[in-house]
Amino acid sequence: MEPFGFTYQDLFAGLLVFVRVMAFVGTAPLLSSSQISARIQVLLGLSLAITLYPFVRAEIPELRIDSTVWIGILGVQEVLAGALMGFSFTLLLAAIQLAGQSMGSTMGLALANVFDPATSAQINVLAQFYSLLALVLFISADGHFMFLRLLVESFERVPPGSIALGDAGARAVLEAGAHVFALGVRLAFPVLLTLLLVYAAAGVMSRAAPQIQVFFVLHPLNIALGLFVFSAVLGVSANVLREEFDRWMAQGLDLLTILGGG
């Protein structure tokens, strides 16, 4: 029986595509924002699945559909594959937020928190600006096409039923987590170093001349110098972020190869 010209294998393959795409939409930044209603997210996932299905159907092998347990295992594997792809970009955005959060807190902006729509978290205004800058750069670098390419490549490199998260996959995930802290420190280093020198100079002045109320002028000085250094290195930071987006895409494809047993 072939309803509407589709076999049951075709319908099951379409369901697996939808599950993987929905797992990606549910974990990727912005797409998973609490500001977007669940209906819109489901419609977006369904639209992407329908759009991608003709391009990935040939990569999906014939699968057993006579066992409820096996169908459940396939569904869990598809959720894992989609969630890993979305979470990988969340890690990159977390590194950017870490840099902005550390700079803002050191400058004295910890009390000026705002809501971040990308991650649904409370962060300071500098981290918010950094996150929005990263998202704008990501879109200007055709990041939405990177998402689509990653989804299509995922079915070529990790067909449904072939996912294998072994030692190499676990190691790749741990290395991605370690890179979050390295990138965050790299982006925040100029501002943090400047403020460290300011605090050291203030400590020396307070010891040499205790009658001078150094810390009354230290707060506005920290903000002024921090923003000045931040704006001075902003162009370099933007180039670093563009490089990181390309690196994220390459790492995502490598991770898919590892998950596919390649």
From TrEMBL:
Record InterPro entries: FliR, T3SS_IM_R
Residues annotated as transmembrane: 12-32, 38-56, 68-96, 129-152, 180-201, 221-241
Entries under Pfam families matching the protein: Bac_export_1
Coiled coil, from the record: none
UniProt KW keywords: Bacterial flagellum, Cell membrane, Cell projection, Cilium, Flagellum, Membrane, Transmembrane, Transmembrane helix
Membrane topology listed for this record: Multi-pass membrane protein
Compartmental location: Cell membrane; Bacterial flagellum basal body
Family label: Belongs to the FliR/MopE/SpaR family.
PANTHER family membership: FLAGELLAR BIOSYNTHETIC PROTEIN FLIR, SURFACE PRESENTATION OF ANTIGENS PROTEIN SPAR
Function: Role in flagellar biosynthesis.
Stated name of the protein: Flagellar biosynthetic protein FliR
The species this protein was found in: Thiohalorhabdus methylotrophus
Name of the gene: fliR
